[in-house]
Design goal:
Layout (H helix, E strand, L loop, with lengths): L12 E4 L4 H13 L6 E5 L5 H5 L7 E6 L2 H10 L7 E3 L12 E7 L8 H10 L1 E12 L4 E5 L5 E6 H10 L2 E9 L10 E9 L4
Parallel strand pairs: 1-9, 2-3, 2-5, 3-4, 5-6
Antiparallel strand pairs: 6-10, 7-8, 9-10
Length: 203
């Protein structure tokens, strides 16, 4: 990283050193989870709990992981039996949490794999009180997400600019986009991009 976490709040973009995508994704996540005032974290599309075990668990924040796949949640509960109740089956299109319930909401690709990405972004924003952290994959031209299934059929398409516009309309006044290694090409199907969004503070 070329900027410290406290610098992110004043920047339109933030620059990442050339390192593995998972590494710097988790570096950002650790910094955000350790920010002053961050006491609760929601991960949507938590999979088998890799980010929780590698990053969030050590921060001591109150964590909840959600995934629509019951098998993934079962794997999390077996891997972390003492925290099993923190992993729940849920639909990202209709999260079972209150408005602004979590200080930090983050997700890797929940929108990319959704038939209704706009509904997912709405739900992520609804339950977020301070900061949202998103990872999008398959950004084919720097502007559009096109996700293919195993047969090469395009199953999800949406414009990255529409994500930013939606976040602005939902009360997030600042959206920061990672530049650098976050945009590396993956499997010839586009790039990964990372976003940090800050909710407006009402005076």
């Amino acid at each position: 990283w070329v900027h410290q976490p406290q610098d992110i709040a004043s920047m339109g973009t933030f620059t990442i050193e050339n390192r593995g995508e998972t590494s710097h994704y988790r570096t950002i996540l650790r910094w955000l989870a350790n920010e002053p005032g961050c006491q609760s974290v929601l991960e949507v599309n938590c999979g088998r709990g890799g980010d929780y075990g590698s990053v969030v668990r050590s921060t001591g924040v109150n964590y909840t992981g959600v995934d629509s796949d019951r098998g993934e949640i079962s794997a999390c509960q077996k891997e972390y039996p003492e925290e099993a109740e923190h992993f729940v089956v849920g639909d990202p299109h209709k999260l079972s949490f209150g408005d602004r319930e979590f200080d930090l909401v983050y997700s890797a690709n929940a929108m990319t794999h959704s038939p209704d990405p706009s509904r997912v972004i709405f739900e992520l924003a609804r339950v977020c009180s301070k900061t949202m952290f998103l990872r999008l994959e398959h950004v084919t031209d720097g502007k559009t997400v096109r996700h293919q299934d195993a047969l090469g059929k395009i199953t999800v398409t949406f414009n990255v600019a529409s994500v930013i516009d939606t976040l602005n309309k939902l009360g997030f006044g600042k959206v920061y986009i990672a530049r650098g290694a976050a945009e590396e090409v993956i499997e010839g199907m586009g790039t990964r991009q990372l976003f940090i969004a800050r909710r407006r503070v009402l005076s």
